[in-house]
Design goal:
Elements: E1 2-6, H1 13-24, E2 27-30, H2 31-41, H3 44-55, H4 61-75, E3 81-84, H5 90-101, E4 109-114, H6 117-126, E5 127-130, E6 136-138, E7 157-158, H7 165-179, H8 181-188, E8 192-196, H9 201-216
Parallel strand pairs: 1-3, 1-4, 2-3, 4-8
Antiparallel strand pairs: 5-6, 5-7
Helix pairs in contact: 1-9, 2-3, 4-5
The structure holds adenosine-5'-diphosphate (2 copies) and zinc ion.
One adenosine-5'-diphosphate (ADP) is lined by residues 7, 9-15, 123, 126-127, 136-138, 141-142, 200-201, 204.
Length: 217
C-alpha cells in the first residue's frame, strides 16, 4: 500500500503518519524530517535546503524529488510506505506518478487532514520537538511527561525556527498557493479522502482507520 498524508503545516500529518506506520508496518517517509536531519548534520543537501526552510519557502522540486527517488528505492520491497509532506507541488506529484509507474506501482490513497486556520496556529505554536530523536510533542495537547524533556531519550525539546509566527504566516501562504491545488489533482484521480482533523489525536486516528478499512474492501 502506498499512502500520501496531506494537509497544511501543523495539521497533524507527522503525528498520524507515525501511528499508521506502526499499525500497518509501513515505512514513514517524511521529507521535512529528512531535510531537518541534513541541516543538522551540515551536509551539502542541508546547506542547500536551510535558507528555504528558515524562510518558510519550499525547497526546489528537483532537490526533493531526488530525495524521494532514493527513499522509494529503499522502501519498495517492504510492506508499503507512507509519504508525509511530499508531494507539495504539482510537478512533485507528476514526478511521483512517473517514478511509481516505472515500477508498476501507484498511489492507493491520499488522506487529506482538514483543519481550520485557528487550529493550525494553536498546534504549531505549541509544537515542541526532541533535539535528538525528533519525537514530537505539544505543550498543551500532547505534553511530555517531564516539561521540556523527551519521553524517549531524555533530551531537550525545542521549538522549530520555522514554527515562529512570522515564518508560519509565509508557510501558510505557500501552502495555499503551491500545495493546496494538489487536492484537485488527486480528486481528479479519484484518490482523495478528506479526513476531519479536528478533535483529539485518537479521534483523528479512528477516522483514518475507517478510511483505510473501507479501502481494503
Ligand atoms: P510541516 O510538517 O509543518 O508541514 P515539514 O516538516 O513537512 O513541515 O516541512 C518543513 C519544511 O521543509 C517546509 O517548510 C519546506 O521548506 C521543506 N519541505 C518539506 N517537504 C518539502 C517538499 N515536499 N517540497 C519542498 N520543500 C519541502
Ligand atoms: P504536521 O506534520 O502536519 O506539521 P504534527 O503532526 O507535527 O503536524 O502536529 C503539529 C502539532 O500539533 C504537534 O505539536 C502535535 O503534537 C500536535 N497535534 C497533532 N495532532 C493533534 C490533535 N489531533 N489535537 C491536538 N494537537 C495535535
Ligand atoms: Zn527524544
Amino acid at each position: 500500500m502506498i499512502l500520501i498524508i496531506f494537509g497544511p503545516p501543523g495539521a497533524g500529518k507527522g503525528t498520524q503518519a507515525i501511528l499508521i506506520s506502526e499499525n500497518y508496518n509501513m515505512i514513514h517517509i517524511s521529507t521535512g524530517n529528512i531535510l531537518r536531519s541534513a541541516v543538522k548534520e551540515g551536509t551539502g543537501l542541508g546547506e542547500l535546503a536551510k535558507s528555504y526552510m528558515d524562510n518558510g519557502e519550499l525547497v526546489p522540486d528537483d532537490v526533493v524529488i531526488g530525495i524521494i527517488k532514493d527513499e522509494i528505492k529503499k522502501s519498495i520491497s517492504g510492506n508499503g510506505f507512507l509519504l508525509d509532506g511530499f508531494p507539495r507541488t504539482i510537478p512533485q506529484a507528476e514526478a511521483l506518478d512517473r517514478m511509481l509507474n516505472s515500477e508498476q506501482l501507484k498511489v492507493n490513497d491520499v488522506l487529506s487532514i482538514e483543519v481550520t486556520d485557528e487550529e493550525i496556529i494553536k498546534r504549531i505554536s505549541g509544537r515542541r520537538v526532541c533535539e535528538k530523536c525528533g519525537a514530537m510533542y505539544h505543550n498543551s495537547f500532547d505534553p511530555s511527561r517531564e516539561k521540556g524533556m523527551c519521553d524517549n531519550c531524555g533530551e531537550n525539546l525545542y521549538q522549530r525556527d520555522d514554527d515562529k509566527e512570522d515564518v508560519v504566516r509565509t508557510r501558510l501562504q505557500v501552502y495555499r498557493e503551491q500545495t493546496e491545488p494538489l487536492k484537485q489533482y488527486y480528486e481528479n484521480a479519484d484518490l482523495l479522502s478528506e479526513v476531519d482533523g479536528l478533535g483529539t489525536i485518537e479521534e483523528v486516528s479512528d477516522r483514518i482507520e475507517k478510511v483505510l478499512k473501507s479501502m481494503a474492501k
